[in-house]
Amino acid sequence: MKRIYPILLAALMLPGLAFAQQTPAGTNISNQASASYIDSAGQPRTTTSNQVITVVQQVYSFSITPDGSTTTPGQTRTALAGAPVYFSYTVSNTGNGTDTINLTLAQDTGDNFDLTGTARYLDANCNGTLDSGETTPITSVTLSRQGTPGASACVIVAGTIPASATSGQFGNLNLVGTSAGSPTTTDNNNWARAIATTAAILTATKSASPSGPVTPGSTITYTISGANTGGSAASGVSVSGLTGTGILISDTIPTGLSVPAAPTGSAGAGTVQIVYSTNGGTTWSTTAPAFPFVGNGSNRVGMFISGSGAFFPQTASYTFSFQVTVPTNAPAGTSYPNTATVQYNDGTANQITTSNTTNNTAASRYSVAIGGTGASAIDGADTQTIATATSGSTVTFNSTLQNTGNAADSFTLSLGTSTLGTCTILQSDGVTPLSGPVGPLAAGATYNVVVRCTIPASQTTGGSVTLTATSVNNPSGSVGTLLDGVDATTLAVTNVVLGYSLDVAHNTNGASGGEGSDPANDTRPGYNPAVNPGGVAYFPFEVNNTGANPDTYNLTANLPAGWTALFYPDTNCDGVMDTPTPAPVSSTGLINAGTIACFIAAVQVPNGAAPVDVTAGTNDNVQFTATSTTLPSVSDTIAGAVDVNLVAQVSLTPNRSGTVTSPGTIQYTHTLTNSSNAPATCSISGSGGSFGWTYQYSLDGSTWASSLSSIAVAANGGSQVVYVRVLTPAGQPIGRTDINALTASCTIASTTATATASETTTVVGGDLRLTKSAVSYVGSSSTVRDANAAVALPGDQILYTVVAQNIGTGNLTQVVVSDPLPSYTSFVSASVSISGFSGTVLYSTNGSTWSTTAPTTLSSGQTLYVAVDTNGDNTITNADILPPGATITLSFRVQVQ
Length: 897
Fold this sequence. Notes:
Elements: E1 28-38, E2 44-56, E3 62-65, E4 75-79, E5 84-93, E6 99-107, E7 116-122, E8 140-143, E9 152-160, E10 170-179, E11 186-187, E12 191-196, E13 205-209, E14 213-214, E15 219-227, E16 237-238, E17 245-252, E18 258-259, E19 264-267, E20 271-277, E21 293-294, E22 300-306, E23 317-325, E24 335-345, E25 350-362, E26 368-371, E27 382-390, E28 394-403, E29 409-415, E30 422-426, E31 438-441, E32 446-454, E33 463-471, E34 486-497, E35 502-506, E36 530-531, E37 536-545, E38 551-558, E39 564-569, E40 587-591, E41 596-604, E42 622-628, E43 635-640, E44 643-644, E45 650-653, E46 656-660, E47 664-674, E48 680-686, E49 694-698, E50 708-713, E51 718-728, E52 737-748, E53 751-763, E54 768-777, E55 784-786, E56 791-792, E57 797-806, E58 812-820, E59 825-835, E60 840-844, E61 863-869, E62 881-882, E63 887-896
């Protein structure tokens, strides 16, 4: 019996249909999940899991045809005693990798005789006859994997009927195959029978030219030839619809093929007529049908050799030929088996001789097209163009990949050298990176591909990148060639304009409006604050993003030596410090294009600063600059004037910033300096702790208090180190920032002086962690093939487990986990479990339409999305919360094709 893996049973299809191809051995099946979410600071983010790669292992299976048993042989040959007989077989590799099939012969013990001189030969042209160059015996055939050239071979088994055999006796012979790669995989039900006779014997040998795979749209020439190799002359038989008796050589036209013109033939005796049947050979006619004569299971062509009595002598021969045309749209692998018959009378009874079977298949044609508006059957280079984009922006190109071949195929996608910055190929969901080939795609099927390019901030010229699609089965070729294995599309931006500019201007009593880009106009004439040493002068100003992209600007000051400046947000742009005083900033934060943000620069004049007397607009002594964090060459500056009085003064330096976990502790140090000409007595306090944080102060780093007083600091530069310890409680969200404005209040003789310093502390930690694991199972059973899914066989199932966990200390919202169906697999099922919170699991195949029911099918490359609805509105928004420590677990099961 044939030994074959269960997954292959569905692949053994009826004659005329293609074999279902398995994923080739050695193929990498890669899978990577991704997730999108909004973090605790309200910012949209994405993350990807680790990648799981499964290598497809080889399946060993094959078939030998025709089948037969000792009681019902698949082939019968009749010959004189002492004459040779030849049996034709086809050996086909139905596995997914190259294999060698060892061939042995077995004789029956329940028949009349054993054949002598048995041997096996490779029938290279599959014509059923041993031709010159085919007379070297073989013991095995090596076949490439199913669905590729060389996946089958024709074999002739020869033997000789013993000279002692009497008419009517028979011997049975079996061709047995064994896989070299899997010796337990065998095929041993291929019995044939040789019968000894003294009557007339008409042989029938059939050839097909070309043999094996044929290009759709081309022709096949069938030739049936034979001779009387028996011991007497042959007679004819009566055929319905034809006059007299004769020998009928007939052939059913394979379904789907068409005969374009009348057949031809000749014979060594009798009169030759070309005949036709439209009812499966029940009746025949010499009248030619309309050509092309299409095979439909009933239409037949034949040659009738008419004559009287025993008219066809020993050694007389015949030949009959006709052509058929293969449909241009024939799917790859479509099989066209064909067998001829000869009807005659051997002198005692009517006989039917069956020829060997030829089996042509429609050859695979692998080609691809890719373009921006839907690929067509004609490939060729094209360009997708965006007219104008701004530097620093992200542009997206959507391309359609189409399998323009006639067979399932997979395709690799690659990007050429980019002059558009960093470009990435994404799955059709526009989020998940594309890893590995796309497919297999059925003939004519399409797949949408997204390319995302981030244009550099400094770029001011157009650019392009080429997206190339290459057939896995036909990687050679050139772009622009019809039906080729390679095609490309150019993705271009014609013009790139600078997307960054700004205008910084004084805010005059809250009246918004900049003075333009000329630094000479960026002053406030008449505004000339005077402050004591250690005092603060305030300058309201506005930052106008006049560019095309959102941007963040660093705020800096150009000041006299020793002076410092703090910048505070002015949320209502009224030019007055907000109440309570906001935390100082060093940058503007994100400002959208065309939007103005207001700030107040607080210029801290240091203790001990020399007196200054300047005139606004004439000899300004301070400048404030906003500089783009994206493109540092983009900046704008305004000027201001500050007078300094001669008074007692102290300073507290420097400003500090740092990060801390929740819970956690961080320590800062500052120096209190008395620049006055008399001793100072000072106290220290701070404004931090608005989120429940604890601030502690010390002069020695070991004894701590909630504030400090009676600190003696010597005159003329005397100093004292001040320690500040910050303790954050548990549960603080990532990104939370607290500003502690540290103040030193000092008494100097009858005068008081103060100094300040800032401490900016930010909570840090993780957010969403995405991990993936996989297990492969034997078929659809619960038996584990590989606990890490490193290997699998066609038909095996792989269970992917994706775990998304909030590892931060703040809530995450709108968490969506996505996982594309890997190439070379079919979707089986999906399910989700959650822990650490409650809600309704929702599924989607497009990321926007949600259902409580998991999908039952996914197409090649399609993405599965899962999320949890926590507010009961049956959709996923930023109101759906994943709290700290909570997890979403996706179980995603697929089957290897």
